[in-house]
Structures are given as structure tokens and as C-alpha cells.
């Protein structure tokens, strides 16, 4: 008489296939989760770069009041910065928004801003402060001490 039940070998083979399927699903889920975390970090970094770009695009390259040759902040408070070179070598942790307010919800991120005078015909060549009407602004964004993104743009004195 033939039995309609599964043999032990058939059951073991089915268990192996099910186990391999579960392991593959768990591994792919972990990879997707890690990829999503990286995407969130990069998205936040791009957002923080855009905040600095929006803030600095509104500012003149040289102090509008004094037309000073001082390169760097003439004022001590962020709220009083009135020209682009005031932001040179500034680091913000927590990062700041375009309205100069701290973004405490992103407190694990840091923005570092570099403002350099560059040659008008070669934006890679740094020149003496205020010797060129062109400046290069670079923003680096770090997350938990690791550099996530950087962006650079050029502005001309107006």
C-alpha cells in the first residue's frame, strides 16, 4: 500500500528551502534598511547645504557698511553677519537654517563653511583676500564626525 505522507528526506529538503528563503529575505531587508539610512543622511546633507546657499546668496561679498578689507567676521554674532566673508571658516553644530536659526532636530550634523577669494579666470586658484571680485564658497556637511557631502559655488562681487 502506498503512503500519501511525506518522507523524512522530502521534509528536510523543504525545511532547507524555507530556511534559505527566510535568510535571503532577512539579508535583503538589512541591505535595504542600510541603503535607506544612507539615503536619509545624504538627503539631510543636501538640505543643509541648500540652507547655507540660500542664506549666503542674499549677502554681498564685501561688508556693505565699511567696505572693509578684513576677510572674516567683523561682527561677533551670527545674527549680525552682513556679508559673505563673515561666514569664512564657520562651523555650526547643530547646523543652521537659512533664517540663521539652529536646526536642533539635526543636531548630529555639522556644517563647515569656507569662503575663499579666487582668480576670476581660474576658480581653483586661491588668491589674496579681496584681491579678486570672485569668491568660492564651499560647504562641508558631517554626520557624527563623518563627511557626508560637500558643495561649492562661485559668487562675484556686486
Q: What is shown here, in short?
A:
With 158 residues, the chain is of the alpha+beta class. The chain has one domain. Helices cover 32% and strands 25% of the residues.
Describe the structure.
The chain is of the alpha+beta class and 158 residues long. The chain has one helix and five strands; from the N terminus they run αβββββ. Strands 1, 2, 3, 4 and 5 form a five-stranded antiparallel beta sheet that branches. The protein is elongated and about 100 Å long. The relative contact order is 0.15.
Helix content: 25-40%
User: What form results from the Cα inertia axes?
Assistant: elongated
Percent in strands: 25-35%
Unreliable parts: none
> How far apart lie the N and C ends?
98 Å
* Secondary structure tally: strands: 5
Structural class: alpha+beta
Mean model confidence by pLDDT: 90
Tell me the count of domains: 1
Sheet with the most strands, sense and barrel status: 5 strands, antiparallel
* Cα radius of gyration in angstroms: 27 Å
Q: Work out the helix count.
A: 1
Order of helices and strands: HEEEEE
Summary tags:
158 residues, five-stranded antiparallel β-sheet, 25% strand, elongated
Secondary structure: elements and pairs:
Blueprint: H1 8-57, E1 90-92, E2 109-119, E3 122-126, E4 134-143, E5 146-156
